[in-house]
């Protein structure tokens, strides 16, 4: 912890000093040189070299300001660029006016960066680096071509007209001559064009730097070998309602150094969002979390864990994570579930009525036949259209035939033999518990249809010998509703109360509560408050399959 604290202090100090050098360079480039030093320097260096010191000081200052915050991200590319620019900065100040004070400041920061070289390990995305280099080269060539063609064609806009050679020299002089080589516009458009050269150069260089500093993007989630290894670990150690979802095709995998544990995650932007806790032996838990932290740091990601159990909260906090309660999971004890007596009086009327009408629930075991899957697809499409949204991912399954073929599927058949609704359910491997996934139904259906389906599910799996049935997460339930809650949880509680009109959080919670479940808390584990916005955006992107607008539609 002490070593990590010292590293953070070092990072902050070098980032602040780098930003300070950037500001000093920009100010120094636009202020006159000291007369005595400048007079002496004129004896040794021509005007063009001294003027170039001004422009290089300005350019290095501009880029160093951009790089300062990226040093906090421990970016290796930012470190390399800062080293190069500080060296240029030292010589620029000496060439433009023997400004040794500014050179000494740049030298101090350069020395600190060299001493801290082992800290800057965060990689950038290689395709983005290549794109950034291409953009940088293209920016220089385009700016030169833009200025040259403009000066050649814009006769009458300046005090003199340019031939091709003079147009090239004038464009270069815009960056390497202190007085722009005596350029004097005669019209407002001429003045606009001269200024636009700087705007285009600054915009394209900024874009190139941003590309160079992008976090690592994974093109392919996982290899077939990684998927098989993850499946073996999950089947042997999985013990939560999320275990089966870690094996879906949108996940990437990080394995512990021992190879016994796995973290299923989705990288989006700067967020690497893990689904649930690490899966593996308890004694391997700390090692895999610490290794995942280091892995994310190298890729310039923020590690986060979504829907974690309460079991390892102390471990997460001891490793520097923050914990936020995000809801509660509804778990029905099947051994005590009954439709008899007072407990089942709210369900019996719907069950009896729909049974008399000829509705029935059938359970289909994997592998599911293609014919049934083709009948389920129109029901799913109708439900999605009614919900005005798209398929969710990450912590849920989606209508994929390969996935559904290996699930248990419960189907509500109409008296005519059609399909009114269906759901797929999944086992939890080491827990004798069944969990619900997709729930799809027609846009119009008989009253009490959901009660009919869910009570049939509970009865069926009770008879099959399961101990419990998991209804999944009730978002924001029980969050921030007691005086000891953290401030951020109280903000979520406010949203729970005031966004219910759009998302019906409370209605869904009340419906699940009809089945008298026990409620277990679930958490979001994230590295820091500053990282939280990136984590939330990454989570939304993972959950929505990058269809952000669909995610925010009411009812989606």
Automatic annotation (TrEMBL):
Q: Which residues form the Phosphatidylglycerol lysyltransferase C-terminal domain?
A: 232-526
A Pfam family cross-referenced in the UniProt record is LPG_synthase_C
Q: What is its main location?
A: membrane
Give the domain of life: Bacteria
Q: Which key words are in the record?
A: Cell membrane, Membrane, Transmembrane, Transmembrane helix
Q: Which InterPro entries match?
A: Acyl_CoA_acyltransferase, LPG_synthase_C, PG_lysyltransferase
Task: Please name the GO terms that the record assigns under molecular function.
Answer: aminoacyltransferase activity
Q: Which PANTHER family match?
A: PHOSPHATIDYLGLYCEROL LYSYLTRANSFERASE (PTHR34697)
Task: Write the protein's name.
Answer: Lysylphosphatidylglycerol synthetase
- Supply the source organism for this entry: Nostoc cycadae WK-1
């Amino acid at each position: 912890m002490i070593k990590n604290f010292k590293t953070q202090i070092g990072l902050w100090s070098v980032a602040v000093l780098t930003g300070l050098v950037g500001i000093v360079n920009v100010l120094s480039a636009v202020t006159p040189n000291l007369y005595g030093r400048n007079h002496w320097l004129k004896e040794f260096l021509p005007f063009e070299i001294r003027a170039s010191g001004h422009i290089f000081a300005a350019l290095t200052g501009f880029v160093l300001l951009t790089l300062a915050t990226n040093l906090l991200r421990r970016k290796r590319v930012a470190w390399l660029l800062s080293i190069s620019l500080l060296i240029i900065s030292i010589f620029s100040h000496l060439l433009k006016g023997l400004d040794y004070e500014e050179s000494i400041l740049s030298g101090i920061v350069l020395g600190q960066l060299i001493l801290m070289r082992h800290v800057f390990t965060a990689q950038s995305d290689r395709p983005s680096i290549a794109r950034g280099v291409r953009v940088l080269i293209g920016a220089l060539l385009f700016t030169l071509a833009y200025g040259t063609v403009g000066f050649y064609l814009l006769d009458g806009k300046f005090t003199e007209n340019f031939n091709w050679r003079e147009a090239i020299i004038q464009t270069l002089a815009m960056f390497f001559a202190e007085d722009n080589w005596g350029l004097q516009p005669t019209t407002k458009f001429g003045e606009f064009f001269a200024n636009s050269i700087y705007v285009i150069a600054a915009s394209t260089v900024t874009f190139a730097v941003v590309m160079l500093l992008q976090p690592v993007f994974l093109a392919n989630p996982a290899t077939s070998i990684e998927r098989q290894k993850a499946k073996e670990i999950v089947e042997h150690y999985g013990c939560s309602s999320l275990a089966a979802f870690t094996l879906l095709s949108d996940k990437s995998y990080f394995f512990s150094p021992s190879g016994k544990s796995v973290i299923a995650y989705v990288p989006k932007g700067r967020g690497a969002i893990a689904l649930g806790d690490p899966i593996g032996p308890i004694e391997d838990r700390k090692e895999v979390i610490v290794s995942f932290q280091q892995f994310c740091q190298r890729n310039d990601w923020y590690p986060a864990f979504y829907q974690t159990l309460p079991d390892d909260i102390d471990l997460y906090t001891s490793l520097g994570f923050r914990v936020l309660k995000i809801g509660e999971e509804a778990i029905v004890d099947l051994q005590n579930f009954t439709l008899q007596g007072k407990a089942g009086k709210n369900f019996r009327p719907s069950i009896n009525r729909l049974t008399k009408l000829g509705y029935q629930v059938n359970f289909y075991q994997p592998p599911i036949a293609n014919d049934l899957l083709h009948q389920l697809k129109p029901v799913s499409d109708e439900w999605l259209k009614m919900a005005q949204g798209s398929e969710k991912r990450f912590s849920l399954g989606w209508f994929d035939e390969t996935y559904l073929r290996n699930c248990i599927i419960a189907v509500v058949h109409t008296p005519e033999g059609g399909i009114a609704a269906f759901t797929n359910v999944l086992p939890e491997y080491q827990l004798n518990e069944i969990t619900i996934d997709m729930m799809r139904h027609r846009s119009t259906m008989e009253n009490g249809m959901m009660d009919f389906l869910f009570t049939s599910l509970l009865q069926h799996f009770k008879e099959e010998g399961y101990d419990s049935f998991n209804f999944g997460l009730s978002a924001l339930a029980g969050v921030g509703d007691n005086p000891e809650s953290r401030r951020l949880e109280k903000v979520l509680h406010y949203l729970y109360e005031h966004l219910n009109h759009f998302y019906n959080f409370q209605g869904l919670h009340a419906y699940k509560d009809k089945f008298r479940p026990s409620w277990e808390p679930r958490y979001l584990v994230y590295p820091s408050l500053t990282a939280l916005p990136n984590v939330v955006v990454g989570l939304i992107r993972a959950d929505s399959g990058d269809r952000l607008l669909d995610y925010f539609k009411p009812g989606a």
